[in-house]
UniProtKB/TrEMBL annotation:
UniProt keyword terms in alphabetical order: Membrane, Transmembrane, Transmembrane helix
Transmembrane segment boundaries: 35-57, 69-87, 99-117, 123-141, 170-193, 205-224, 236-253, 265-282, 288-309, 316-334, 340-361
Domain DUF2157: 9-144
Name of the molecule in the record: Membrane protein
Signal peptide location: none
InterPro entries: DUF2157 (IPR018677)
Length: 373
């Protein structure tokens, strides 16, 4: 609905008068941004960059190695200088954009050196140096979600690559596996530090951490649909030592600096950790009792998240929690009552429950809105 249509509707409903509508219209016109123009300019710049990249790629084999490395080093130095200049001038977007470009150039440089010197090896051996080189700069200078998302994604990619390349290794590698599992908890814990002047950066870390942590634990609940032997449970217990320690540290950080509502600490850190432990370190055989227990634990975890989220005003997370519970209710009929689902009775019951859940969700939002008003 356009602004003009909204203003006409508000005036017709008596919410504002014509003078207020004129002032709103003038204010919006004064602050209007030519998004279409900038989009066209951005598309043109992208086409220009892509064309240059294709020309270089077409002649890549005839370009001398020293020239490739020299140009890359010059670009990297220029990006680092731009970060410095942006920070010195207080130009947030120059600093953040250059920092993001610097991170990309460092990663590209690692790949370029590997190609020039014909180095081979697993992916994590290239990602770990990037993490070591760029983490200090991105954590010290980063102040927007853009940089937070980029660094968080690279951290999770590095840890996942490290674990997957060595998934069958034993001994101390179990702790590396645990570090990969704890990746999103590390992000949540870092976001709970006192980032007083860089709240957007902290929010970005926390958003990625919560999304991956709750999503990962939700998928781990389907372990209840399989058999976990005593030996497998013992190995997982060793792997989860590191995540438990990191989760405890994140809880302490949250209580110490109170960067988020205290009611959210248990649902987004401790409850998923407990649910993961129950699913993976408790031996069980496949069968409907185990599947039922898994479904109940899953819904209890997300129910706790929903309750805390609505109490803390985290409406988006509340909506995700209700959707997660609704999907699980739908799935459980296929897991436990296959014959009913085949005849349609299970789907009918599940549909009724989902409709009731949606109506209840809407009623909760309405009640919260009235209380705040």
């Amino acid at each position: 609905m356009s602004l003009e249509s909204k203003l006409e509707a508000w005036v017709a409903a008596g919410l504002i008068d014509a003078d207020a509508a004129a002032r709103i219209r003038a204010h919006e016109e004064a602050n209007d941004r030519p998004y279409v123009l900038w989009a066209i300019v951005g598309l043109g710049l992208f086409a220009l960059a892509l064309g240059l990249a294709l020309i270089v790629a077409a002649n890549w084999d005839v370009i001398a190695d020293w020239l490739k490395l020299s140009v890359h080093m010059a670009l990297t130095a220029a990006a680092a200088a731009a970060v410095w200049i942006g920070a010195a001038r207080g130009n947030r977007w120059l600093k953040e954009g250059a920092l993001f470009l610097l991170a990309a150039l460092v990663l590209a440089g690692i790949a370029l050196h590997s190609q020039v010197y014909q180095l081979t090896g697993p992916m994590w051996q290239a990602l770990v140096p990037w993490l070591v080189l760029m983490t200090p700069a991105m954590l010290i200078a980063g102040s927007t979600r853009l940089v937070a998302y980029g660094w968080a994604g690279m951290l999770l990619w590095t840890l996942a690559s490290l674990a997957l390349e060595n998934e069958h290794a034993a001994g101390l590698w179990y702790f590396a596996h645990g570090l990969a599992i704890a990746g999103p908890v590390i992000l949540i814990g870092l976001s709970l530090l006192p980032w007083r002047s860089r709240l957007s950066f902290a929010d970005g870390l926390r958003e990625v951490g919560i999304l991956v942590w709750l999503g990962g634990v939700s998928f781990a609940h389907f372990v209840w649909a399989g058999t976990v032997t005593s030996s497998e449970a013992g190995e997982m217990a060793v792997r989860l030592v590191v995540p438990v320690i990191i989760a405890a540290g994140a809880m302490l950080a949250g209580r110490r600096w109170r960067m988020i509502p205290q009611t959210m600490l248990l649902p987004i850190i401790a409850a998923p950790m407990a649910a993961l432990l129950l699913a993976t370190v408790v031996p069980h055989a496949d069968g409907w009792p185990a599947r039922l227990v898994g479904a109940l634990i899953y819904m209890a975890m997300w129910g706790l998240v929903a309750r805390a989220a609505i109490a803390s005003g985290w409406r988006a997370l509340f909506g995700v929690a209700i959707a997660a519970i609704g999907i699980r209710i739908f799935i459980i009929y296929f897991e436990l009552f296959g014959s009913l689902a085949t005849t349609g009775a299970g789907l009918i019951i599940g549909g009724v429950l989902l409709i009731a859940l949606a109506l209840g969700w809407r009623r909760v939002f309405a009640l919260v809105g009235r209380k705040r008003a």
